[in-house]
Structures are given as structure tokens and as C-alpha cells.
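Researcher: Here's a chain I'd like modeled. Treat it as a single chain, no partners, no ligands.
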Amino acid sequence: MNISSLSILSRLCIATAILSLAACGEAQEDASPMPPETNIRDKADEAAEPSRSIIREEVDQGASQPQLTRLEVTISFADNGTQLDQAARQVLEQAISTPQMASGGPITLAGHTDSVGTDSANLRVSRQRAEAVQAYLVDAGIAERRITIIPLGEMRQAAPNAHPNGQPDEAGRAANRRVEMLVEPPPEADEQA
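Model: Modeled as a single isolated chain. C-alpha cells:
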């Protein structure tokens, strides 16, 4: 083959490709069974209606509930006290009215003390504080089986019991005399199955 034959052959290939592509465009335009007005109206209807799955049942996206988070509440106690005062009862009433409490998830009551007293006495007092909160919750209709008590005594301080110079820190000690209540969201239905 000579150069002029190659030139003619390449031109012929290019012309064939152009004609093939042009024919494809015409075939697509002619393949539409409905007039263009109808196609425009159908596309508007499709935009107004959400797409639907043909594989799974429809799920109502609007009815989904917001994800519950853990509720953390601190109930304070008086020095050496194991009884709930009016302020503690108000805190508990507010907690009882939350969605987390109503959801039925597990409740952990961690009892704490300041560092005054022996370790065994502090563990006993921290258990009694947690039991006082438990009794209040059960009296309010919360199922006792949901509640776990953990007496920690003076092991997990919220604040220092003493100043750096060794003098007692009364505000720190007061912050340590507490029950921490954690209300977890219930396990999801998928996790239970």
C-alpha cells in the first residue's frame, strides 16, 4: 500500500464513524414513543414523587425517632447522709420524666463518698446512698430489674478532698458525696434479634 491509499482508507474510516454516530442520535430521538410534552410532564411527576424500591418494602423515613443518648445525673448527699433531701428528690423527678427513663434501658447507680472515714465504712455508705436512689425510683414505678448498684466508696473522686496544703476542701468533699445515675438507651430491636 502506498501513502495515498492509507490517506483514503483513514478518511473512509473517519467518515464511517461519523455517519454511525449520527445515525445513533437519530435512532434515540425517533425511539421515544410519547410526544416530548408527555415526557416533560412525566419527569415533573417523578420529581414530585419519591423513588420507590422494587426490592424491599417501603420504610417511612418521616416516622423515625431521634436516637436516644445516655442520661447522666448526679444526686448529691449531705455529710455522712444516706437520705434523699428535697433537692435530690427534685433531680430524680426530672430524670424520671425524661425519654431515656421511659425507654426502658438499663440504669446504673454508682454510690460515692468523700475520703472521711474508713474504706469499709465508705463502701457501706456509698451502697446505702445508691439504695436510697433505687428505692425512690422503684417507688416511682421504675422496674427494679433495670437497676444495678455499684458502691465505690471514695475510689472515684469528682473533686479533691483536700487543698494542696493539706487542709480539708469542704466543697470538694461535698461534690464527692453523690450517686451518679447512668440511664442507657435500650438495645435496638435489630440487636435483640
